[in-house]
Design goal:
Layout lengths: L1 H30 L1 H4 L4 H11 L2 H8 L6 H11 L2 E2 L14 E3 L2 E3 L3 E3 L12 H11 L4 E3 L7 H7 L4 E5 L5 H13 L5 E4 L9 H6 L25 H8 L9 H6 L5 E6 L2 H9 L4 E4 L13 H12 L5 E4 L5 H9 L4 E4 L1 H33 L12 E2 L1 H8 L2
Parallel strand pairs: 4-11, 5-6, 6-7, 7-8, 8-9, 9-10, 10-11
Antiparallel strand pairs: 1-12, 2-3
Helix pairs in contact: 3-15, 6-15, 12-13, 14-15
Main location: other
GO molecular function: (S)-2-hydroxy-acid oxidase activity; FMN binding
Catalytic activity: a (2S)-2-hydroxycarboxylate + O2 = a 2-oxocarboxylate + H2O2; 2-hydroxyhexanoate + O2 = 2-oxohexanoate + H2O2; 2-hydroxyoctanoate + O2 = 2-oxooctanoate + H2O2
């Protein structure tokens, strides 16, 4: 009887363990599979949410004030439809793209975003290595948590350096010279940030950022504030709000590198960019983090493209989350897009491999979109492949 009882207890315990394992597997299946093995960029966002402290997740995902522009950057893509061409030979598809004379594997680059070490201890070095593996361009933020020298030394790749002009022009000049000496191929001048946008999540979370690695030893960034977050005070103490179009001549005088101007949203500013000799334009609203209620970037892309008239390349950032978004931007005239938050989600979730996978996902989605739309290379993506809300309104009048 005792042996039978022991055998019964062992059998029952084994059944309970199996049941618990099945329950655990089912729980992972129901609650975590998207996060464990993301199938799209939004899956990486969810995994980043689970991984990061709330303060850092909010810092990366948040926008200015009501976050209207932040939301519209994505929503505006949804209002554009794709018009496919059928019965086209799609046996070979080429996504390679030229940017300022450099060949990259796809029309997707990494936008400048700050403080990658808040997402992963390897910071911008991991991001740069992923960009190199995927043969694309990373734009390193001036507010990076790895120095521009460290990023330059970590891998062999084409990279650009993003610049906000400081009140102390000598510091700005030193940063530009360091970028040039370390092999950066272009300067991306951010023009939409004379002051820091009001990001209310950061204020509520009382996020304090002290580290600006690229200006260590050049500028004190120890800011004391009673406003919760020190980001506004830090930006306002360091950046030059008096910098204008006329000052770009000074910037051009201190470097041989081409200058791309980031933050253009209007026909008028596109023409000014041409007048000052910009090598390219990035249609951007700073990811909805600066001026709220300014237009989503995809909605003004065509206006800027028409103003430029093919004289310089036009790029776009803001709201790109799918290969279809990239396709739509290119159909409306962008030579390539830049992605910011998706890269940070991948970095937070899985480090360098996460960034690489995000880039691969976007490339795979774009390739499929091209195949189903009848485009065997990026040059075949034309205006006739999309219809905007304005197009539909015109068609309704016919």
């Amino acid at each position: 009887m005792l042996c039978q009882y022991i055998t019964f207890k062992k059998k029952k315990r084994k059944e309970e363990n199996l049941s618990r394992d099945k329950g655990s597997s089912r729980s992972r299946l129901l609650n975590g599979i998207m996060a464990e093995e993301p199938v799209n960029v939004n899956g990486f966002r969810e995994l980043a949410r689970q991984t990061l402290p709330k303060m850092y997740y909010d810092f990366f995902t948040g926008g200015a004030e009501d976050q209207y522009t932040l939301k519209e950057n994505e929503e505006a893509f949804h209002r554009i439809t794709i018009q496919p061409k059928i019965l086209v030979d799609m046996s070979s598809i080429d996504l390679s793209t030229m940017v300022l004379g450099y060949s990259i594997s796809m029309p997707v680059m990494i936008a400048p975003t700050s403080r990658h070490k808040l997402a992963n201890p390897s910071g911008e070095i991991a991001t740069a290595r992923a960009a190199s593996t995927c043969n694309t361009i990373m734009v390193l933020s001036i507010s990076s948590t790895c120095t521009l020298e460290e990023v330059a030394a970590c891998c062999n790749a084409v990279r650009f350096f993003q610049l906000c002009v400081y009140k102390r022009r000598d510091i700005t000049a030193k940063l530009v010279q360091r970028a040039e000496n370390n092999g950066y191929k272009a300067i991306v001048l951010t023009g939409d940030s004379p002051r820091h946008g009001r990001r209310e999540a950061d204020i509520k979370n009382k996020i304090i950022i002290q580290e600006l690695k690229n200006v260590e030893g050049l500028l004190s960034t120890k800011i004391v504030t009673d406003k919760g977050s020190n980001l506004d005070a830090l930006a306002n103490q360091t950046r030059d709000p008096s910098f204008t179009w006329e000052d770009i001549g000074w910037l051009k005088s201190i470097t041989k590198l081409p200058i791309l101007i980031k933050g253009v949203l209007t026909h008028e500013d596109a023409l000014k960019a041409l007048e000052v000799g910009a090598a390219g334009i990035i249609v951007s609203n700073h990811g909805g983090r600066q001026l709220d209620y300014c237009p989503p970037t995809i909605s003004v892309l065509e206006e800027v493209v028409h103003a430029v008239g093919g004289k310089v390349p036009v790029f776009l950032d803001g709201g790109v989350r799918r290969g279809t978004d990239i396709f739509k931007a290119m159909a409306l005239g962008a030579q390539a897009v830049l992605v910011g938050r998706p890269v940070l989600y991948g970095l937070a979730a899985k480090g360098e491999n996460g960034v690489r996978r995000v880039l691969e996902m976007l490339k795979e989605e774009l390739e499929l979109t091209m195949a189903l739309s009848g485009c065997s290379n990026v040059k075949e993506i034309t205006r006739s492949h999309v219809r905007t809300k304005h197009d539909w309104q015109l068609l309704s009048l016919l």
